[in-house]
Specification:
This protein is mostly helical. About 60% of the residues lie in helices and about 0% in strands.
Length: about 425
């Protein structure tokens, strides 16, 4: 490795200021810092020294996302293979696209009981989405870094993985490219780049696709990677269910809400795809690639909290806001909107709530910075999530809009928290 270090040091003057390749310095710097720890250190007694920097922080978040990513790929294949078996048993027609052609060419046969079969099929769906996202988003950042003469930061490593995990496995690749380009440019680069964005970049990209191309990112035909299969998410089924039958217990009614018939031709959903609370908690339900497993999100939360990267105050605030708002709305009877009666323990395991509160709401750039502000910020997100889900069931998934709403108000929340602290200190010293 010393030879490689010598080569990089030898060509450094070419890329340094005044060198013939000065304009390409961000690319040289990115390769150098990726391979080696920067040689520059802070001097003087005014500097705080810590073992973590931006690169280590971003890599830690990526590592916390690895279990969810691997499980998401397996679940994409499991949902598709189980749906194929159910449709074949019911005599229904379906179409297999190029993903399945590659899957079959490798030697797999859509066997849902084979973990490798499920994982490889999910990998074939996820990998192109991830590659397109990294290629397009990375090049957008590269262009802006070259134009500004800035270093290429590692922040996109997280955004480039978060964004694909928020998408359905059937998303067209050209929409992935447009979405990530929009998010990086509009939510990040126009404000100065990494550390200066006030909106979460991955969620901004997804929100753009949600409103610009709703047909490919919502509905009941995009969550299972089989053309011809119609299977809504648990939240989608809840929003479209009827009122509770007289005399039905809460648990039986909610179970029937998330397992209403939704396969083509009115056939009942396959038993292996029924969304019990436990299945929803583990994550073996249809949904975005990485958002289904609450269990693995809890594992990721533990990693982020233990390393000091994710704020437990924000996570606890979101959960508290969800529970309090749900209990409040449960007190209202609605004959036309069944979402009012959904208990909080279902809200916590369906949709992307757990994924959003662990990885999106805790974004250190776009979230509140003060300790008290983090509580208020988290509670606001939890409140808005349930409010959107229940009061406006046309948007069954509320966490995306709630986090972006919280991002907008985070600076204001911190402002009032700081001003309140200032007033308390002035009052304290005025009495002494």
């Amino acid at each position: 490795m010393k030879a490689l270090r010598d080569v990089l040091d030898k060509v450094h003057p070419w890329f340094a200021k005044g060198g013939p390749l000065e304009v390409a310095y961000p690319m040289y710097e990115a390769l150098d810092t990726f391979l080696y720890t920067p040689g520059e250190v802070a001097h003087g007694s005014t500097h705080l020294r810590d073992g973590i920097d931006l690169k280590r922080m971003m890599i830690t978040v990526v590592m916390a996302l690895v279990p969810i990513t691997l499980f998401g790929m397996w679940n994409v294949g499991y949902q598709a293979n189980t749906a194929i078996a159910a449709m074949e048993q019911a005599g229904q027609r379906y179409t297999l696209d190029w993903h399945h052609s590659i899957h079959h060419a490798i030697g797999f046969t859509n066997d849902a009981s084979n973990p490798a079969d499920n994982f490889v099929l999910g990998l074939i769906h996820f990998l192109p989405i991830y590659i397109v996202c990294m290629f397009v988003g990375g090049h957008v950042e590269l262009v802006f870094s070259v134009l500004r003469g800035h270093e290429i930061n590692e922040g996109f490593l997280v955004t480039g993985l978060l964004f694909p995990l928020t998408l359905p496995p059937t998303i067209p690749l050209w929409q992935v490219a447009i979405g990530i380009a929009f998010g990086v440019i509009v939510a990040k680069e126009v404000f100065g780049g990494t550390g200066r964005n006030f909106l979460n970049v991955a969620l901004t990209s997804r929100a753009f696709l949600y409103f610009a191309y709703a047909g490919q990112i919502s509905g009941d035909k995009v969550w299972t990677a089989v053309d011809g299969y119609s299977g809504a998410t648990a939240l989608g089924r809840m929003a479209g269910a009827g009122p509770a039958p007289e005399g039905a217990t809460e648990s039986a009614w909610v179970y029937s809400m998330v397992n209403v018939p939704d396969v083509a031709n009115g056939e009942a959903i396959a038993a292996d795809l029924q969304a019990s609370w436990l299945n929803s908690f583990i994550g073996t339900i249809p949904g975005s690639i990485g958002e289904t497993s609450t269990l693995l999100c809890i594992l990721g939360a533990g990693i982020l909290i233990a390393t000091g990267i994710g704020s437990w105050r924000i996570m606890a605030g979101v959960v508290g806001g969800v529970v309090a708002t749900t209990l409040l709305l449960n007190g209202f009877d609605s004959e036309t909107n069944p979402m009012f009666a959904v208990p909080f323990y279902w809200h916590l395991v369906v949709g992307g709530l757990s994924f959003g509160l662990v990885y999106m709401a805790t974004d250190p750039v776009s979230a509140s910075m003060t300790d008290r502000g983090k509580w208020l910020y988290g509670i606001l997100i939890g409140f808005m999530t349930v409010l959107i889900r229940v009061v406006n069931p046309a948007f069954p998934e509320g966490i995306m809009l709630a986090v972006l709403f919280g991002n907008v108000f985070a600076p204001l929340i911190d402002y009032f928290v700081v001003q309140a602290n200032v007033r308390r200190r002035i009052a304290r010293y005025a009495t002494t």
